[in-house]
């Protein structure tokens, strides 16, 4: 069994995500997984989060270790998905990316029961670092 890396979440993201969870029509495994991640997170002010941490609406570059393939993903709320490269916070990879710091790795469950190892290489855009708190 792998151990989850420590994560950091902003107080503002925590409040918004808790409101989103409370508003869900169906509270299934994805919501439970997100709630578990939020409960173990170190919570900081939006002005205290380091720039290399994945927050909501961050765009990141990561690598799947088995193949070496790199991905650029933007972590979004469920209603903002649709464009290529946007991943919902309620998707397994979205939940796993939240709060990660550059250099940390996660296990990414993909269809067919496989698990891939994904390493965070860079946070190319973070709203807090850009001063964009109204996203």
Automatic annotation (TrEMBL):
User: Taking every annotated instance into account, which residue ranges of this chain make up the domain Transcription elongation factor GreA/GreB C-terminal?
Assistant: 51-125
Boundaries of each Regulator of nucleoside diphosphate kinase N-terminal domain copy?
Answer: 5-44
Biological processes per GO annotation: DNA-templated transcription elongation; regulation of DNA-templated transcription elongation
Which Pfam family would be a valid example here?
GreA_GreB
GO MF entry, a single one: RNA polymerase binding
Tell me the keywords, alphabetical order: Kinase, Transferase
Q: Write down what this protein is called.
A: Regulator of nucleoside diphosphate kinase
Q: Which organism was this protein described from?
A: Pseudomonas panipatensis
Provide the taxonomic classification. Bacteria, Pseudomonadati, Pseudomonadota, Gammaproteobacteria, Pseudomonadales
């Amino acid at each position: 069994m792998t151990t989850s890396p420590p994560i950091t979440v902003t107080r503002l993201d925590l409040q918004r995500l808790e409101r989103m969870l409370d508003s869900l029509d169906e509270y299934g495994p994805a919501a439970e997984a997100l709630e578990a991640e939020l409960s173990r997170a170190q919570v900081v002010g939006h002005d205290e989060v380091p720039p290399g941490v994945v927050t909501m609406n961050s765009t990141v570059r990561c690598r799947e270790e088995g193949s070496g393939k790199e991905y650029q993903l933007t972590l979004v709320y469920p209603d903002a998905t649709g464009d290529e490269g946007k991943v919902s916070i309620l998707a397994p990879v979205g939940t796993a990316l939240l709060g990660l710091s550059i250099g940390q790795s996660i296990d990414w469950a993909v269809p067919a029961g496989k698990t891939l190892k994904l390493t965070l290489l860079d946070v190319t855009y973070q709203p807090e670092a850009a001063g964009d708190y109204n996203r």
